[in-house]
Write a structure and sequence with these properties.
4 helices; 281 residues; 15% helix; alpha+beta; globular
């Protein structure tokens, strides 16, 4: 497949507002698969109530193989704008939970491009694309989510591995095995090869498989719900640095500020989140 050529002055603003609605059902199978993938890192209340983060697996894009790009993700120019930069990463987002989804619910997901911005970073040009997802069932809106994606230039060399580091002090210690990363990719129908194809990940400049941004968000959200004893009304998070599948990481919660962090083995904070509940803004 050839490169997508666009004018240098193209700002892609005409893509803002584009939307698509997909339908799904919260089946026994998807609920069981989510639990099998994420246990023991879940906030559970009842067998027919979906744990936080299961919405990542509902009504995902399902492109034909011919509609995917060299990276395995849906080809740009189908729903996302044809930004001529090869690397895509998850930058963060916000999850508003109005009420939990339940087993058997018929769900609609309406996804709209909310914003597109071009920036110049330390590593070169990058584009930020924000997507708003409205997830509803028969009783109306249940979850609203904003996802922020970043598109970057190709890497000039492979990044160094993180190394073994020191003992991680956190509420949860997670081993991001290839099986865990594959299962989360399959669960969310995420074809992006950086999460399961080691050779491709290295071609993109990474020393190992990358841990999904949504997986990190789901872990932080579930830990926050566990410590608060309810799913927070709003959860905001951002990804600060990559985590690779060969490195264990920690998930920690701080009641002061109602904050969560993803901690790499080298002590670096790879992601951070904040829960907003009644009375905290």
């Amino acid at each position: 497949m050839g490169l997508i050529l666009v004018p240098v002055e193209q700002d892609f603003k005409d893509w803002i507002g584009r939307s698509i609605t997909r339908l799904d059902v919260v089946t026994e199978r998807v609920l069981a698969e989510y639990r099998a993938t994420m246990t023991p890192f879940l906030f559970e209340t009842h067998h027919d109530v979906c744990p936080p983060g299961l919405h990542f697996a509902l009504a995902p894009p399902t492109p034909l193989i011919e509609h995917t790009g060299p990276d395995g993700a849906e080809r740009k120019g189908v729903f996302l704008p044809p930004i001529p930069l090869p690397r895509r990463m998850w930058a963060g987002g916000t999850i508003d939970t109005f009420r939990p989804l339940r087993l058997g619910a018929n769900v609609s997901r309406t996804s709209s491009i909310a914003d597109i911005r071009r920036k110049q970073g330390n590593s070169g040009e990058l584009w930020l694309v924000s997507i708003l997802h409205e997830i509803a069932d028969a009783d109306g809106p249940a979850i609203r989510e904003r996802q922020d994606l970043v598109f970057r230039e190709a890497a000039s060399e492979v990044a160094p591995a993180i190394g073994p580091g020191e003992e991680i002090e956190a509420d949860w210690i997670v081993d991001p095995s290839p099986l865990l990363l594959f299962r989360f990719s399959a669960l969310t129908f995420n074809g992006h090869r950086i999460h399961y194809d080691l050779a491709h990940a290295r071609e993109e400049g990474y020393p190992g498989l990358l841990v999904h941004g949504p997986l990190q968000a789901a872990l932080m959200l579930n830990l926050s719900a566990r410590r608060l004893d309810h799913t927070p009304q709003r959860f905001m998070y951002r990804c600060l640095a990559p985590i690779y599948g060969s490195d264990r990481f920690g998930v920690s919660f701080e009641m002061d500020g109602v904050r969560t962090r993803i901690l790499r083995g080298d002590g670096f904070t790879a992601a951070e989140g904040q829960a907003h509940v009644q009375g905290t803004g």
